[in-house]
Amino acid sequence: MFLCERIKAMKSIISNLVNKYRIHLLVFFISVIPLSCNILNIDKIPSATERDIKYKIILKDNSGYMMTLYGSNLVRNAEIMIKSKMQGTEYQLTTDSNGVATISGIISDDYLVTANRWMLPAEMKIISGASRGDIKLTNTNSRIITFSQKNGSDIVIPMEMALGSSPIVISEIYACGPPGAGLYYQDKYVEFYNQTDSVVYVDGLVVSVVFANYYLGIRYSDDPDYVHTKNIYKFPGRGKDYPIHPGQFIVCAAEAINHKLVAPNSIDLSHSDFEFYKPDGTGIDNPNVPNMIYIYQDSGNLWLIGGQGCAIILSNCPSDSIKQSGDQFLIPIKSVMDGVEYLQDPTRLDLKILSPSIDAGATGGIQFYTGKSMERKALSTSPRLILKDDDNSTVDFDIIAHPTPGKYH
Ligand SMILES: [Ca+2]
Ligand SMILES: [Ca+2]
Ligand SMILES: [Ca+2]
Question: What are the residues whose beta carbon lies below 5 Å from ligand 2 (ion)?
């Protein structure tokens, strides 16, 4: 959408200029616009009739919340993502204050649609008296829509109330290594955040790195039931030993040391909450930082996640019930609380290794040794920080210039 709007804007600027310098600019227009569409990988241009249709997507709330708050059932300020089944093209839209989003210039097809409207804590305070930030309106019962000339231009999508994301989300992954320190990579970490307004405990939760396999035509990301892994650690504790308070971050470092001593552009992780200490590895065990309990890791001397591409999940599957299958372990998708994938090229979703049911997209696009990090976006910051979790890292994450262990940028 954004690109199309840019091109539209360019066209209008150019058409003004054309009036001034007719022939030369007309040649420029004809040669450059199709070229830029190719470069930007924009889809085939729809036929003239299709292009003319302006569709109105109308989100209608069945929960009564919008009626209570705004006197209308239409869902304002909702984010809609639609993806063509045939072409894979994605569009992102936001509904206006009337609960309507419009789109034109698209090809007739079935589209997968995800519409989300997070309720703000202040809105929930009015509705239920509690200012919680984990409730959303979503299109639970209507996931596929058809854009076609015969179906007319108004598309109504029902929206239901749903409990939002996991109480604990992956809030940041820092993996690429710092600049100016050669091949230094030991400063990786994953950060978690308590989204809720009550204390949650991480005791016994499992953190796994997703194992990829493209060999022999097998893609584990297609397994509908399990995430395949060869790298499992779990949080220590017996149930209520390790609380995360509302709005608190915790940092799990590959190595909880002050990396700045070795790599000046790196970070001090000596005050991390946990470290992935590998008992038979070569890492330093900081006695002041509790260790994640090692379950299994097939190789490497430190807890290792890909510098440019990888996927991490947080699961509440008890570690003693994780099934083994050959040299892999299987974590039930049902037990996954949150999962995030990052790719060297985040547009190459065909290379995903994590099931789209956990993460429909991917963040990333970060080069090795640039010190950049991947941070979950904020949905609201007041009265407290609520992070966006639509189970789609393409839209849920931003790339930030420097890691922010234990805080938000
Ligand atoms: Ca330690
Ligand atoms: Ca999620
Ligand atoms: Ca952070």
Answer: 338, 389, 391
The yes-or-no verdict on residue 25 having pLDDT over 70 is: no
Taking only the tens place, the pLDDT of each residue in 95-151 is 999 999 999 888 888 888 889 998 988 898 899 887 777 789 998 888 888 888 777
Whole-number average pLDDT of the chain = 86
C-beta of residue 187 within 8 angstroms of C-beta of residue 178:
yes
Considering the domain architecture, whether residues 176 and 141 belong to the same structural domain is answered as no
CA–CA separation, 379 and 386 (whole Å): 5
**Do 187 and 143 have their domain in common?**
no
* Distance of CA 339 from the midpoint of ligand 2 (Å): 6
- From the CA of 170, the nearest ligand is 2
Do residues 233 and 321 both lie within one domain? yes
- In the reported structure, the alpha carbon of residue 306 is separated from the centroid of ligand 1 by a whole-number distance in angstroms of 22
Q: What percent of the chain has pLDDT over 90?
A: 61
Decide if 408 is inside a domain.
Answer: no
Between 89 and 303, the higher pLDDT residue: 303
Whether 141 and 175 map to the same domain: the answer is no
pLDDT at site 23: 40
Question: Of the bound ligands, which one is closest to the alpha carbon of residue 193?
Answer: 3
> How many Å lie between the centroid of ligand 1 and the Cα of residue 92?
44
Q: Which of 392, 347, 378 is nearest to 171 (CA)?
A: 378
Q: Which residue, among 408, 309, 357, 354, has the nearest Cα to 208 in the 3D structure?
A: 354
Asked, for residue 383, whether it belongs to a domain, the answer is: yes
Q: Which bound ligand lies closest to the C-alpha atom of 289? A: 1
Q: Where are the beta strands (DSSP E) in 62-125?
A: 79-84, 90-94, 100-104, 109-118
Query: Nearest ligand, CA of residue 171?
Result: 3
pLDDT band (50, 70, 90) for residue 52? confident
> What is the spatial distance between Cα 376 and Cα 394, in angstroms, rounded to a whole number?
10
C-alpha 205 – ligand 3 centre gap (Å):
20
Those residues whose beta carbon sits under 5 angstroms from the ion ligand 1 are 285-286, 289, 291
* Residue in the block written with tokens 């609960």: 99
Question: What is the count of structural domains for the chain?
Answer: 3
